[in-house]
Amino acid sequence: MRKKIFDVIEKSEYRNRIGVAYDYAMLIVITVSLIPLFFKQDNIGFKVIDKVTVVIFIIDYILRLMTADYKLKRGKTSFIIYPFTFMAIIDMLSILPSLSIISRGFKALRVLRMIRAMRVFRIFKAMRYSKSFILIGNVLKKSKDSLIAVCVLAFGYILISALIIYNVEPDTFDSFFDALYWATVSLTTVGYGDIYPVSIMGRIITMVSSIFGIAIVALPAGIITAGYMTEIDKKIDGIEKDKKE
After folding, report:
1. Residue 223 contacts residue 146 (beta carbons within 8 Å)
2. Degrees (nearest 5) of the Cα angle 117, 121, 35?
3. Distance (Å, whole) CA 67 – CA 82
């Protein structure tokens, strides 16, 4: 019974029409669950949508937890590991905001807004059911090492740039966090203009930071594009082989 459930909720090689229908149904539920987020005020209809969709999400989570050993293939340990996997965390973050019981003393506007915003994580649930998201996920997995190297390079560059500008212009940047913010904005070449150096040396550092920032920001795009094209080519080759057979 559990194996049949797994074949329906997961994209296994024995997938049938019921499994495909389940994917489409979940995509519809996810989309409907996001409707209340487009409005500032709640009403009875939105509350019903939230309660119904969260019940479906809970059932989906329980079914996936029940069949975790088929997915992770680590025996009984799978049931312990599964709640800490990426998609399981996303599922839980999608459920918790609707289950949170907040006492009157903590019903501040900011807390409510934060909990409401957490429901946006339901968008990420669609990654499990969309072929496009699955394809991109495969690309990210295979390019993991290269992307991690680029992220380390970017983080190191931001840290060094912030450290330099913070010491060059201590009067402009009140804290090291302001310097980190400036370095991040310069790296991404966004340039909000709210914090900027005023000395000649500071401006030179900004120019150098922006030029190198363009190169660093372009690296992940190139890596992901190359991996995406490779996956597309493999998919096309697989289709052609199936046609020949």
Report:
1. yes
2. 65
3. 10
CA 225 vs CA 76, 144, 221, 228, 235: distances in Å = 38, 13, 6, 5, 15
CA-based nearest residue to 217, from 156, 165, 151, 168: 151
Dist. CA 82–CA 66, nearest whole Å: 10
Residues 6+ apart with CB under 8 A from 63: 5, 9
In tens digits, the chain (245 residues) has pLDDT values of: 888 888 888 765 555 678 878 888 888 888 888 888 787 777 888 888 888 988 998 999 999 999 898 888 888 888 999 999 888 888 888 887 777 544 444 444 445 455 556 666 677 777 666 666 667 777 777 788 888 888 888 888 889 888 988 888 888 888 888 888 888 888 777 767 778 888 888 888 888 888 888 878 788 878 888 877 877 777 676 666 656 65
Instruction: Give the type of residue at 227.
Output: G
Q: Which two tokens stand for residue 119?
A: 């429901």
78-116 b/e (C-beta count within 10 Å ≥ 16 → b):
beeebeeeeebebbbbbbebbeeeeeeeeeeeeeeeeee
127's CB contacts (< 8 A; 6+ apart) are 87, 90, 133, 134, 137
CA–CA gap between residue 166 and residue 179 (Å, rounded): 6
Burial of 62 (0-12, 13-18, 19+ CB in 10 A): exposed
Q: What is the pTM of this model?
A: 0.57
Element (H, E) at 126: none
